[in-house]
Design brief:
Blueprint (H helix, E strand, L loop, with lengths): L1 H18 L13 E3 L7 E4 L10 E3 L4 E5 L15 E6 L8 E9 L7 E7 L6 E8 L2 E4 L3 E4 L6 E9 L4 E6 L2 E7 L7 E8 L7 E13 L2
Protein name: Alginate lyase 2 domain-containing protein
Keywords: Signal
C-alpha cells in the first residue's frame, strides 16, 4: 500500500511539472547592436551646485556611486529642479535610429523615491523614459511596475529606443519586462544616477558599472 502511495505522489508531481510553463529564457538585447566608444569625456556629472563632487559621487575605476539627500540644492543656481546626482552621457545625442543603454545597477536597501535612469527628450514632457525606484521595486515612472525586489543585488538593465517606430523596450537581466510608446522629442540622450522624485527617503543612492551605449547595425 505504501509503495502505491509513493507511486501516486510521484505521478502527481510529474503531472504538475509537465503542466508548469518552463521559465522564460534570458535574451541578449544587444544582439545586432554595436557598442560605441566611451571615454571619461562622455560622462558629465550633474550634482548639487554648491557641493564638491566627492560629497555626492565616487568612482573607483569600476563602480560609480551616486547619492543625494532631499535637502540638497539643484545642479545649478538657476535651476528649479529637484536634487540630483546624475551622469549625463554626452557625445551620442540622437534624433533617429535605434539606440540602447546598458548598465549594471545596485540599489541599497532603503533608497526610495528616485529616478535612476532616464531617456531625456520628449514633446510634452522633458523625458521619454524614467526608471523610478519605490520601496525596493523598479517602475516605469510611477505608473507601472517593472521589477520587484531589486534591493541589494546587481541588475542588468537594457533600454532600447527605436526612434523611428517611437517605441522603447526595457529588459532586466535579459528578460523582456516592458514595451511602451515614445513621447516624441527632437533629440535624446541617456542619463543614470539619482534624481529625487516623490516620497523620497533620507538618502537616495544607486551604484552603476559596465555602462555601455550601443547603436543598432544597419
Amino acid at each position: 500500500m505504501a509503495s502505491r502511495s509513493f507511486q501516486w505522489i510521484a505521478v502527481c508531481l510529474l503531472a504538475v511539472l509537465l503542466a508548469s510553463p518552463p521559465p522564460a529564457r534570458a535574451q541578449d538585447p544587444t544582439a545586432g547592436f554595436t557598442a560605441v566608444s566611451l571615454s571619461a569625456s562622455n560622462f558629465m556629472l550633474q550634482k548639487p551646485y554648491n557641493m564638491p563632487a566627492s560629497s555626492r559621487y565616487s568612482f573607483n575605476g569600476t563602480v560609480r556611486q551616486m547619492w543625494i539627500a532631499p535637502s540638497d540644492d539643484p545642479y545649478s543656481p538657476q535651476s528649479d529642479t529637484k536634487p540630483r546626482t546624475e551622469m549625463r552621457m554626452t557625445g551620442y545625442d540622437y534624433s533617429s535610429g535605434v539606440w540602447q543603454f546598458e548598465g549594471l545597477v545596485y540599489v541599497p536597501s532603503g533608497s526610495s523615491g528616485m529616478s535612476i535612469m532616464q531617456v531625456f527628450g520628449g514633446d510634452a514632457t522633458a523625458t521619454t523614459l524614467m526608471l523610478h525606484v519605490y520601496g525596493g521595486a523598479l517602475w516605469y515612472y510611477n505608473q507601472q511596475l517593472i521589477e520587484d525586489g531589486i534591493y541589494d543585488r546587481w541588475l542588468r538593465v537594457n533600454v532600447v529606443h527605436d526612434v523611428g517606430a517611437s517605441r522603447l523596450t526595457v529588459f532586466v537581466d535579459g528578460q523582456l519586462k516592458l514595451t511602451f510608446p515614445g513621447r516624441g522629442g527632437d533629440t535624446h540622450f541617456f542619463k543614470f544616477g539619482v534624481y529625487m522624485q516623490r516620497d523620497a527617503s533620507a538618502r537616495m543612492e544607486s551604484r552603476w558599472r559596465n555602462i555601455r551605449i550601443l547603436k543598432k547595425n544597419n
